[in-house]
Amino acid sequence: MVYYISAILLILIGMYAVLTKKNIIKIVIGLSIIDSGINLLLIAIGYVKDATAPIFSDSSLKASGMVDPVPQALVLTAIVIGLGVTSVALALVIRLYDHHKTLNIDKIRKLKW
Amino acid sequence: MSLSPVHFIAVPLLAAFLIPIIGRFSKEFVKIVPGIVFLYLSYVAISLFPVALNKPVVEVIAGWKPPFGISLYYGPLAAFLTSLITLMGFVIWVYSYKFIIREPIEKYYMLFMLLITGSTGIILTGDLFNMFVFLEITAIAAYSLTAFLRDRDGAEAAFKYLLIGSFASAFFLLAVMLIYSQVGTLNFADIADKMNTVSYGTKILILIFFLVGLGIEAEVFPLNGWAPDAYSQAPSPIGAVFGGIVVKASIYALMRIIFLFFNFNEVFHFLLIIGIITMLIAEMSAMKQHQIKRMLAFSSIGQMGLVIIAFSVGTTDSVQAGLFQMFNHAVIKAMLFFAAGYLVFHSGSKNISALDGLGRDKPVTSFFFAIGALAIMGLPPFSGFWSKLYILLSVADAGLIAAVVLVLTASVIEAVYYLRVVSRLYFNKETASHSEVRRTPVSGLVAMGVLAVVIIVVGLYPDYLWHMLKPAAEELINKAAYIGNGLLK
Predict the structure, then answer these.
(1) Of A101, B120, B351, B382, which residue is most buried, by most CB within 10 angstroms?
(2) Could you report the per-residue pLDDT of B260-283, keeping only the tens digit for each?
(3) B140 closest CB neighbour out of A38, A84, A96
(4) B115, B144, B163: which to substitute to probe chain A, counting the most A Cβ within 10 Å?
């Protein structure tokens, strides 16, 4: 249960950072925190009480004594996707800094409704 | 080598990875690779089409049968949409051949191939997490392409798109997580089978997450703030890709999920209202725009609102009309973006006021723009007339007269701002000074010409396409058949 709460807290902290911070780097960090929170939530959903990692490291382990491996596979993919998105975001931050010479998002918001 | 739907995903992906390697040896050959890919894909599409109409092809990947493994579901709907994407991709490649002249060219084609891979994957897949992966592939390629022109506004539009798109993927992943925790499977057919065991409150929560996640990509109100910036700052062929391919794939994903998992009446009523609001607000915003590509972007959002209205009525006729409108909108909007691209290039400014009098300097391009404007307004004998007519007829058949009235109001607003631009092209004196008269390259004219021919032919003989869409519409609505086919019963 505590894992669910901490994961949701992480997501909320990340959203707070994205929505209220003025520095672009902090916004990108907030995005990364949201990704971590979601991945943690996904793994927590797959948890089975008193079970171990889903790897047949010992021949006596049975499949019923393992946690659900599907969320773990999903999270591996999601971590890599988060990596890709964060790197594109940082590349865009570099380009924005080159043009505007500031990291303050209020000064960068030129394109209006 | 036997043909299978996997080729639609595998071949562009392979091409995307080979393009940087080929680029080291020959820059010229890089420009031809997408053309080869699209010719091959159209061959696959044409040969698989009759097979899909007969019985949907369920392609099992890597030997793990559903519901445990990932499978591709290639039914009439997927066949229609992949054929549309192949056609649009080919035309956009022809247009980009001479339009993209600034370096780095091979990165552009690589990202373009990745966009095609991602969009086709969204349409073909029968597995929920696989759809997430393809959504992300499409999204990352789209973010990068928005910022392709190295100017200040491009980076800002791409960053805004990235922020909002990351929220979209976060919500989608949350929805996937909730479904997995309730149902224990990720295969579309299996989830549809077991969805009635989920409690009502949880279903609504999952639905909200899906609506937000996919609605951001599909540009429904109020989640479409990123779209005007992205469409106008990206290069014009990429604007055509966004409006013609990416948004179609997202709307397909949204509709597939809603028709399979959540097909009860309140959802459709809600969608209808959302579609109407999207359409009205987008059309009204389009009227206020001063830049031509932003105007086209808002018009695109409005047309997607119309498609959502058509889908949300839920009858076979309305879904068929919605699919027809998707096809027409992709073709027409691409042609409008192509023409606008060269008009902007010639006049040197993105403003509509700079387009005064260009009908004299660039007669052919302006003519294509005028055809596109008339077609999207719904004038006969162009294809837009038939799709709008069928949508209005099917909505009226369902008794929703208020919706018909609102759609017609939006059409009037559309007519205002499109005719405004067309009249400025032809009837105003030239106000902006042009450095020299540059002729539109042949590749651009060929691309626009092909689309114009499609518009006119479909406008004069709509029945052929209309009848081809009926099995596609029936497939979307028929949940039991999807479950039966998808689980390989």
Answers:
(1) B120
(2) 888 777 888 888 888 899 998 888
(3) A84
(4) B163
